[in-house]
Amino acid sequence: MPFIPIIIIILVVVLILVLATNLKVVQQSKAYVIERLGAFHSVWGVGIHFKVPFLERVAKVVSLKEQVVDFPPQPVITKDNVTMQIDTVLYFQITDPKLYAYGVERPMSAIENLSVTTMRNIIGDMDLEQTLTSRDTINSQMRALLDEATDPWGIKVNRVEVKNIQPPPDIQSAMEKQMKAEREKREAVLRAEGQRQSQILVAEGEKESMILRADAAKQAAIKKAEGEAEAILKVQQATAEAIKLLNEADPKEAVLRIKALEAFQAAADGKATKIIIPSEIQGLAGLCASAKAVFDSVEPNKPKPSAESK
């Protein structure tokens, strides 16, 4: 019969189509929740899977990556009755696809409502100042409470961050003025500290300069004293050498007396107001005076020149 090959071809094509439409390739970081006849059957992981036609269906495709949800600002009342707007960011990950598919209807809406309720309970036990300065505490408490509450849904809350806290306009204006005053105060303190450090550095520089000048003057005085001492030593050595040579020459008494007169003349030319004359020099001076008297007595006995000779 000519229709048999056509039927076979049609059946083969249908079989190929069925196989192609029921072969599923599960990608990395994804999971397929499979139902058979309306009931949960299994969870497919990474790889190739075949779905039984007309009996099984893919109920839900679940992403296993970490996901981020940014919730809009929510009004929250603090312990001291201040209403502020707080928005949060939630980081979560699906750990059990079955619980996520069957645990709660609309999981994202449930997480949002749960986070708002949890945040209001935490902020309600804090006053305004604690709320503004305790973000880490709020984040850790919210993460712990949300993780415990979402565990039956197959969701793990990894991190919760308070993104923004906006107080009422009047309180925000007062806070801005206070922050400005604190900033100006810190700037004044920093300027005063800078001036103090500058004065300290100038004083230390002057101190070092004075120490260096005093040390230089000290070194100069030492060098001058050493030079004078060396000069005196040279003079003494020269004098000693002269005396040594004089002793070696064995001078006569007359030479010694003449040297004594020269020394006496040098002493007399100085600035001393009192001079002690040795006895030897006194005798020599008397001898010179007697000689001078003899010559003076001889001069008057000379004949006077006549008027004609004039």
Q: Secondary structure elements and their pairing?
A:
Elements: H1 3-22, E1 23-26, E2 30-36, E3 39-44, E4 47-50, E5 56-63, E6 66-70, E7 74-77, E8 83-94, H2 97-102, H3 107-123, H4 128-133, H5 135-150, E9 155-166, H6 169-249, H7 253-268, H8 279-298
Antiparallel strand pairs: 1-4, 2-3, 2-5, 6-8, 7-8, 8-9
Helix pairs in contact: 3-5
Domain Band: 21-179
Membrane topology: Single-pass membrane protein
Pfam family, one: Band_7
Helix/strand class? alpha+beta
Shape: elongated
**Beta-strand share of residues:** 15-25%
CATH topology of the largest domain: Tetrahydropterin Synthase, Chain A
Write down the CATH class of the largest domain.
Answer: Alpha Beta
Provide the gyration radius in Å. Answer: 61 Å
**Mean pLDDT score, rounded?**
81
Largest sheet: 4 strands, antiparallel
Number of helices: 8
Distance between the termini: 201 Å
- In CATH, what is the homologous superfamily of the largest domain? Band 7 domain
Count of individual beta strands: 9
Poorly predicted residue ranges: 284-295, 298-310
> Secondary-structure element order, as H and E?
HEEEEEEEEHHHHEHHH
Percent helix: 55-70%
Architecture per CATH nomenclature, i.e. the level-2 architecture of the largest domain: 2-Layer Sandwich
Structural domain count: 3
Family: Belongs to the band 7/mec-2 family.
Main location: membrane
Pfam families: Band_7
Transmembrane segments: 6-26
Structural features, described:
By secondary structure, the chain is of the alpha+beta class. The chain has 3 domains: 17-61, no CATH class; 64-166, Band 7 domain (Tetrahydropterin Synthase, Chain A); 168-239. It is built from 8 helices and 9 strands. It has helices spanning 3-22, 97-102, 107-123, 128-133, 135-150, 169-249, 253-268, 279-298; strands spanning 23-26, 30-36, 39-44, 47-50, 56-63, 66-70, 74-77, 83-94, 155-166. The strands form 3 sheets. Strands 6, 7, 8 and 9 form a 4-stranded antiparallel sheet that branches. A 3-stranded antiparallel sheet has the order 3-2-5. A two-stranded antiparallel sheet has the order 1-4. The protein is elongated, with a radius of gyration of 61 Å. The N and C termini lie far apart (201 Å). Residues 284-295 and 298-310 have low confidence and may be disordered.
